[in-house]
Each structure stands twice: as structure tokens, then as C-alpha cells.
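hey so i finally got around to running the thing on that chain from the lab meeting. sorry it took forever, my laptop kept dying and i had to restart like 3 times. anyway pasting the input first so we r on the same page abt which one it is
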Amino acid sequence: MKKMVLGFSIFLIVMLCFMSTALAEGDMPDGQEMPTQTEATPTPPPTPAATPTVTPAVMPEPIPESTPEPTPVVDQLIIDSWHLYDGMDRTYQQGYVPRVVNGKVYIVLPLLGETYDGKVTVTADLGATTGSPFVFGNYSQTTGGWGAYVFVFEIPLIKDRINGSYPVTFKADYLDVLGNQTQQTFTVHVTITDGDDPPDPNAPLPKEEVEKPELFISDCVINPDTVGGEETFAVEVAIDNIGAIRARSVRLSYGSETAGIIPAETNSAMHLENIASEDSATVSFQLKTTKDVLAGDQPFYVTLDYVDLYGGVYTSTRTFLVHITQPAEIAYDPISVPKQVTAGETLSLPANVFNIGKSTLRNVTITVTGAGLFPTSSVFLGDILPGQAGNGEMKVFVGMLSMTEGYAEDYGSTNGVYTITYTDDAGEEHKINMSFSTEIMKPVIKGEETEAEKKAKEEEQKTVGQWWITVLVGFAIISITVAVIVVGKFSRMMRMR
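ok and heres what got predicted. didnt touch it at all, straight out
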């Protein structure tokens, strides 16, 4: 009986396990829910349908183009904005303004950069002639140097100039580092404050100002454009009447306030026909230079005097420049180098140059070359005006001959060259060479006798030895003489006895 009860219990346990497994797998009758042991979870509200996401099309990455070979960049000139040069109150970075002194404007243009041949030519463009305060002419300079080029332009101003700011464009022509011809422009503004104030544009004009003639010299041609001393040149000017009425009794006169330019003929004036409004006339005359005329751009003036219909008198003057050349004449102190120099010392040589001619000596430079001779630097005297001098001092370090290529000896004779280089107004370079010789001596160690001192000491010893010999010989002669006298007297005394 117990066995039957035990078996039936085991059967019930097996059946319960089977039913639990079926229910866990969801095998429940239709319409019935699976019971749970936890509290029921509330059903969330329905979620709205999601907006479909549009995936952007993937664009293919562009294929990079092949990088071209790099092109060499040619250095250009720039204005030195950081340094102060002679004639400047402020650097360009600080707001440099050209100086206006005694009717002239002085413009300093310092350029930095490398060139193929170390030369730069700069030409000033003064712009339109109408309303300009400048005296027009050929303003061009050429200077040499490696890396730095300083130009100083002196431009005369007309007497009836108007205050204001006027641009001046400088055109720089040079060969770049690759040897290509290159041109750059630099603009500098000139401020005029010592002239007349500009007229008020809103002020009403009187009738005689509205209806008046106004003659203007619009062009001037000089032939030849470059003149030497004691030469005649022709001038042709074009006169325009830009006024409203006719100019009557027109008189043209010409000349120069600069010494050395005079009219070629006795008469320095001429009378013209009347010039109607919007009409023009061309007039030619001649000027000549004297022997002592200074080289450079020298001014001459052309004056027009005329009257209007109402009896009003008018005067108009314009100044022009003619380029004059004169042969350069130079003088200098002769070079003086000691016959003997000692290795290790530094020589001070004079660098004095005098301009005794009528043209400017430009870019005056002094150098020294020679085996065993090493200048600490060259002496740059710059431009020397006629009648002026340039002064400096050349420092030369004395080394050994073997410090110069091609020399094996350390000490001995050497030949040097003292060179003065300058450029004339025509741009031609000149060199003056002065040769000298000296002997480089071995440096003397302190306490050690030099060869000269040794020779002097030997000569002194010889002289002292010779002096003692002379004294001894003299003493011997005197002794012999005394002995002879004593013996003679003794002999006479013996005979008397």
C-alpha cells in the first residue's frame, strides 16, 4: 500500500513538471492569458509613426589635381621703413614727410633688396603739370650697392605754389636676382605749407575773373636735352589760352637766375600776336651755358605778360630744368704707409677727397687691398658736391702674408693698392689706384729684444771697446813720454857728477 501511494505521488509530480513546461512555452488555450506573479504594467499610449529618414547620397571625393612644380620667387625692392637716414626726421614707419626748405623739397627714398648687378635707377614722375608745385625736369639717379640703395632727390618748387599734399611717383628700374629687367613704383606724398592757400571753391567770382584770358605754357622741349659747358641749346614752348577771352599784347621773356645760363642773343624777350580763347601758339628761342656752369639739373624761366579787353594786366611764369654735364675733377690726400709695420697692429690711413670740378662726385668709396692687409671696412663718402670735401679714415689690420692665398711666408715685403672709386653725372664709373709698399715684421714679445735693438747694442759695445782702447793707448803714450823725460833727466844728473 505504501508503495502504491509513493508511486502515485511520483506520477503527480512528473505530470505537474510537464504542465509547467508547456505553460512556460506559451502553449495555452486560445482566449486565455498567462498568469503572472507580478503586478500588471499599464499599456503605454501608441507611438506615432516615425518619419522615414532620408539618407543623403554620398558624393565621391574629388580627385586632387597634380601640384605644379614651384616657380622661383624673385625678390622685389621694398622701402626701408625702419631706419632713419640723413635728411629724415622720422622713419617711413613713423610717418616720414619730405622736408621743404628754401623753395626746394628734399625726398629721401631708401630701398632694400637684392639685384643682379647691384645697381638701381630711380626716376621721379611729378604727375600732371596743371596745378603742380614742382619745377619739371629730368629727375633720375642711379646708385650701386648690395642690398641697400639710398636716393636723395632735390626738386625745386615754383614761386606761386599752392598749399596741399602732392604725390610723387618714383619708378625703379633694375635687374632682379635672375637677371630679368624689372620695374617697380613707389609713391611719396609731399606736403606744401609755405605757399598760398587754395581758393575757396564756393566763393563767387567777379565778372573780370569770369571773363579773362589765361595763358598757360603747356609744353617745353629742350634740344639737346643734355648740355655741357659753353654750349647753346634751343627751347620750344607751347602756349595755350585756356581763358574765356582773347589775350592781347603778349610778351614772352626768358632767362635764368642760376649763374652759368644766359640768353644766346642780346635780346631776351619777344612780342607775339594776340592769342584767342582756346587757341595756342608755339615760340622758340635759344639759351647758352658758360664755362663755369654747375652740372646737374639747372633751372631757367619763361614769363608771359599780357592784357585783356578791360585793360587788366596779367603775368604768368613757369620754370623748367635743363640737364648739364661737366667733367668730374677730383683731388685727394696722398697715401702714406710706414716702411715697416708689425703683424697684429691696426693702421689708420686718411680718406680725404676733394671735388674741385663743377659736377657732383657720386658714390665715392675708398678701399685698400694687399697681401697680409685686411681693411676692417670700406670707407663710403657718398656724394660730394662741387667745392666740397669728403673726409674719413681707413682702418687696416696688419696680419701675416700667409693669411693671403698664394703666400707661404709669414713676414716680409708686401705691395698694396689704395683705390678711390666714384661715378660721374653720366653714370660712368672711375677708379684711381695708388700703389704702396711696406714690410710686415714679426710681432715682438714683451721683454724680447728686437733685431734692431740687438744691432744697436752690439754697435754700442763696439764703440765702448774702441773708447777704452783709445784711452789705454793714450795712457801708454803719456807713460812712455814721462819715462823718457825722467830717464833723460837722470842721465844728465849722472854725467854732472
